[in-house]
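Thread: quick sanity check before group meeting

JM: Hey all, I'm pulling together slides for Thursday and realized we never actually wrote out the predicted structure for the chain we discussed last week. Dropping the sequence here so it's in one place. If anyone has concerns about the input, flag it before I start.
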Amino acid sequence: MAATCYNLIHGFGHNKLNGQLHIQRKLVPPYMHTYSKSLFFFSCNLDYKRIHTRHLLLHVSPSGFGEEQLEESVSRTTLIWRAIKLPIYSVALVPLTVGSAAAYLQTGMFSARTYFVLLASSVLVITWLNLSNDVYDFDTGADKNKKESVVNLVGSRNGTFVAAYLCFALGFIGLTWASVQARNTPSIVLLACAIICGYVYQCPPFRLSYRGLGEPLCFAAFGPFATTAFYLLQGSASAMSRLPLTGTVISVSILVGLTTSMILFCSHFHQIEGDMEVGKMSPLVRLGTARGAEVVKVAVMALYALLIAFGLCKALPLASIFLCALTLPIGNLVVGFVQENHKDKSKIFMAKYFCVRLHALFGAALACGLVAARVV
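JM (edit): ok, ran it. Output follows.
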């Protein structure tokens, strides 16, 4: 059967080449034959290569019938890039930047040293979350077919586990040092709450992500807890002994938490089958992709509705409202992409990266608006 398929495809390619060349000879003047022949052989050779490549992807099933399917061949470099998840580290950058901007609006002061210590520490904590998540999903079998899993790539579950908790220890030391230097106890309590949310989200014996509680935990950790903590730490450099919890910082923390949760929610679309096999009841397992796409639409609408509401309440400055409104096309892109591709696993995995773009741009717009309001 495979040989027959090969002969048919091979013969079709040569017949097509000869037929096209015959037509070309009739249509082209004699003095152009040499040039046009070379050009036509080049184009037909490309056409033949496309046919031959399509043949190579033709798999023959055990029953003997041809079964055409796209063979997934991803380079190791691409897998490593996916495993690193560099765009996801915006979830460390945005709460810190927005919280620092809110403190600057309140005090007019900014500590670069505190900012970069907190940034490095936050990146280490996020690395712990990513690595330990791969370890625990490896233990439950959720990542057995996930090629970009760090455990699958390095081939060592224990090595990944040790690296994860080394990152956690270094990150926690950095956060604690910054809090002690700022002499701000509430900030370290809030950061501890954020880390606890991350732990109970994925680590045994809790693993609340398997009960579909990942998104609320993500919202609390990166929104009210982390953003507010960074606001307090940056504000400690001012003459005020302790910054008040204003409507501005509460508003921006809610918006940051919402955009962060959307990233996590959209990361489930292409993992539904694997999650169901191991009993992980993610929101998409419960809802299905069609209703999940509607949830994304409602979440994006809620994001901009809250933005307008906070603006009307004067919790956010006009500059933040205006700059965040400019990200609306990215919000529409997220909604349109999910609505169109929620059933296509080969495409829908990109939804979380579109959400990362929205998260990063929306957060940058918030922060720039807060700074602009203070400067003006």
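AS: nice. Residues 1-72 have pLDDT under 50 and may be disordered. The CA atoms of residues 25 and 33 lie 7 Å apart.
JM: adding both to the slides.
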